[in-house]
Amino acid sequence: MHQCWAWLLSHAVLTLVLIALLTGLFLWQFQNLQFDTSSSTLILSGSPENVYYDRIRKVFGGDQVLLVGITSADLLQSQHLRRIRDLTGELENIPGVRRVLSLTNVTDVQGTKDEVLVSPLVPTNLDNLNKDILRARLRSNPFYEKSLISPDGRTASMIVFLEEIERGDALNQERDVTRNVRAAAHKLDSEYQVFIGGLPEMELEGTESMIRDLRLFTPVTLLLVIGILMASFRCLRGIAIPLGVIALTLSWTVGAMVWSGRPLKVTTVILPSLLIANGCSYVIHFLAQYYQALVRCCGTDRWEGKEAIDLEKNRASLLEALRIVHTPLFISAATTMAGFGALALNRIPAVRDLGIFATLGICLSYFFCMTLVPAALMVLPAPRFEHLPGKAGSHRHSFLRELGEFNIHHRGWVYTVALASAVWALWGLFRLEVHTDYLGYFRKRAPVVQAAHQFQQRLAGIAPLSVIVETTGQRLVIEPQILKATETLQNSLAHTTGMDLTLSVIDILKLLHRAFHDEDPHYFALPSDPHLIGDLIDFAESDPNGLSEDFISNDHKSLRIFGRTHLFSSTELNKELDHIQQEASQLFPADVRVHATGTLVLMNQTSDQVATEQVKGLVVSVLLIVSIVIILLGSWRIGLLVLVPAGLPVFLCFGLMGWSGVSLNVNTSLIANIAIGIAVNNCIHYVVHFRRSLNTGLSISDSTRESLKNVGGPMLATSVALTLGFLVFGFSSFVPVSHFGLLSAFIMGVDLIANLFLLPSLMLSERVWSGFIRSPL
């Protein structure tokens, strides 16, 4: 390695030029950067549930629907209906909108003595409107009330169906459609209370939150890092060089992400701040050892503090710094990549992307620290001796020396506090719940949350749910036995507290049955005659407005009960799904299958499943990290010892989640995998320097003092950088990002305390080092 480093320093300019040229290629990709907060990124790809939903979506269409609600005193007046008609037409003309349903364009099925008429519900000439007749028709048809109009007539809804867009530029197209719908609807703000809901609106608001977070928190993180660098090194190069490494790491990582066609997701939006803080920590450790090497190389007794350090001393100091930091930085990078690498095997796209590109970013941070930094220091003029930070006698050295004395003489107190904290965390762990709530991703005052509550209170919830009834073999779903069971299941769902609206082909058959009997209300019932059922189905399917296409397949092998619910909580939604399966098992014969599906159903089911599996995956990450440490340090005792101060903060984080009520979901479950790799960084630096001190013949106590003096400063700076880098995201308005930032900052802060107190206290044990082969690192 010495020859490689010597070659690097001899070709420093060439190294910098090559890095600059490659950086230009990655920066060029930034113009194609996209954002994706869609719920599909949090769905387990390739799962049977996801495959099933894709098949059903081809039959009945997807659930990418926007709901536009308006409220006024009496919306059945002619002037209000004209406004609804105008807005309906404007929405229909928006590119990307497949169709729009509202009071002014839906049809009504009505029977007379001679025939059954399918005509517009609201007449074209609104001057001839009879409000009493219209109100009676609204109340007699289940497709209108709570779907298009509230029972009190004060709130109306327009249902905007989006076109199925093939992936590629679908993200931008869907958001453009949603923005255009939003703009058109809000033109009525001066006359009505307007609110917009639906999955596309939630995704757009989430995307806008992510963009705001990225624009605000990334520069804030940079400013905090700059402050830490100024406090640590008090010189321009001590600030400029780490910022250069950060800029290059971000450019290459995000550029590679864009190059591969992957947008920033709800998980990967934290990558910039993560790489800023983590990349900065590597450079801090390198610069600290470089400046210490310069002090040792020059010798204070021969310097008055005004001379510049010559080129040879600078080169020798760089080689010494590379020799010292190479092993701990390599082990730190390897363990951090192992923590993130475990996520790269995840089948959730958002989690997998975080694993892949965080691993790449950590690798680049290490690469630039070991190439760009020494090359830049070789090209730049050597610093003056009086400008070197961290010389003996500073306040930092005094603090670290006293800290070492405290650890040597008060180990018992440190162990007691650590044990008490672990017991507290264990108690909180029993309170931890696995729970996902997609609507809960937004603050309570967010427009999309307020809209969801408005729809729930006045019409029906915005969360779509489809219950599919399918037959096997030669049977068809239009058989009276199956239809009767479907009716019973639909009625059962309608009476549950979570379901606000249910519609199916059963409602169509009831309407037609009544219409063919001169609107006699006694005939608003499901017919039992199979021939009559067949005739009514044929009539419905012949309607050019597609009366039945959303509820029964063309081959009559499947039908859909469509529901709208206000349930976004996975716990509550799973109870609803269990109820459906229990009812279906009792109502339907064995050759009929019943499944609940939909985007939010998939997201909640798979998120809870993966959150649980993620905890299991943590065991794999820990084993991998411990294995790396054991192999590279050559001691199983040290590998297990490092796990204690690195793992305790993660354990305390889970305990804090249990006590604070933060649920374990697909986002919070990531924190453990990420943090365990990062948290072990400072442990590695301390252990390597401790071992080197032992190899020089120092006692264990003296090695404790010397190790804290050498690496305590960089440990403080890097931990503070990581803590603040995550903490700024705690102020995000997007709850997943906020929770991730706060909990990660908590882990980094506790990790600093553990590394300054618990780790040195554990290292003082003679048993740890008994029989240990002291070989130089």
How many strand units? 12
Distance between the termini: 13 Å
- Largest pleated sheet: 4 strands, antiparallel
Categorize the overall geometry.
elongated
Low-confidence residue ranges: 771-776
Residue fraction in strands: 5-15%
Total helices: the number is: 24
Class from helix and strand fractions: alpha+beta
Give an overview of the whole structure.
The protein has helices at 2-10, 12-27, 48-60, 78-92, 131-140, 170-185, 199-233, 236-259, 271-298, 311-341, 349-379, 395-409, 411-429, 447-458, 480-494, 505-515, 530-542, 570-587, 599-633, 636-660, 670-695, 700-727, 735-763, 766-769, and strands spanning 35-36, 65-71, 97-101, 107-111, 116-120, 155-162, 193-197, 264-265, 463-471, 499-503, 558-565, 592-597. Helix 1 (2-10) crosses helix 10, helix 12 (395-409) crosses helix 23 (735-763) and helix 21 (670-695) packs parallel to helix 23 (735-763). Residues 771-776 have low confidence and may be disordered. The chain is 62% helix and 9% strand. The strands form four sheets. It has a four-stranded antiparallel sheet. Strands 10-11-9-12 form a four-stranded antiparallel sheet, with helices on both faces.
